[in-house]
Design a protein that fits this description.
Layout (H helix, E strand, L loop, with lengths): L2 H26 L6 E5 L3 E7 L8 E6 L3 E8 L17 E8 L10 E5 L2 E7 L15
Antiparallel strand pairs: 1-2, 2-7, 3-4, 4-5, 6-7
Length: 138
């Protein structure tokens, strides 16, 4: 490959890498929650760590049929009589975007907040579910 054809491909790779780094850094901002994600034949399941958050401080939405958006805000907590020595838990607004591998039925998504964990069940859209195909012999 000549240099004139190699350079555009190289720049495109750098652009993609830069975009991925930006998304990664955005997810670190304000303590975006850590996630566990798995699927079964019927749905995707997500667990998000959101200690100290109440349901009114969380928003969950599905966009473009395959994109999960978790947004929230952790209130800034100052010590009443003292000073900080370490602050590892983020505060302020956060958002976490997750691209799912198949479309989901946004009307049937269920969300439950329990013990500092957000549990989401995202049923797969009918067209994304596996189908058994009958085989006929002649």
């Amino acid at each position: 490959m000549t240099n004139s054809r190699l350079l555009p491909a190289l720049w495109a790779s750098f652009d993609r890498f830069g975009g991925e780094m930006n998304r990664w850094l955005e997810n670190l901002g304000a303590g975006a929650p850590a996630l566990n994600v798995w699927e079964d034949p019927e749905a995707f399941h997500v667990e998000a760590e959101v200690p100290g958050l109440e349901e009114e401080n969380l928003q969950v939405s599905v966009t473009h049929k395959t994109q999960l958006l978790i947004q929230g805000e952790r209130q800034d907590q100052e010590p009443s009589d003292g000073r900080w020595h370490r602050r590892e838990r983020g505060q302020g607004r956060f958002q976490r975007v997750l691209e799912l591998p198949a479309a989901v039925d946004a009307e049937k998504v269920e969300a439950k907040l329990e013990g500092g964990l957000l549990f989401l069940t995202l049923p797969k859209a009918e067209e994304a579910r596996p189908r058994r195909i009958a085989v006929k012999a002649e």
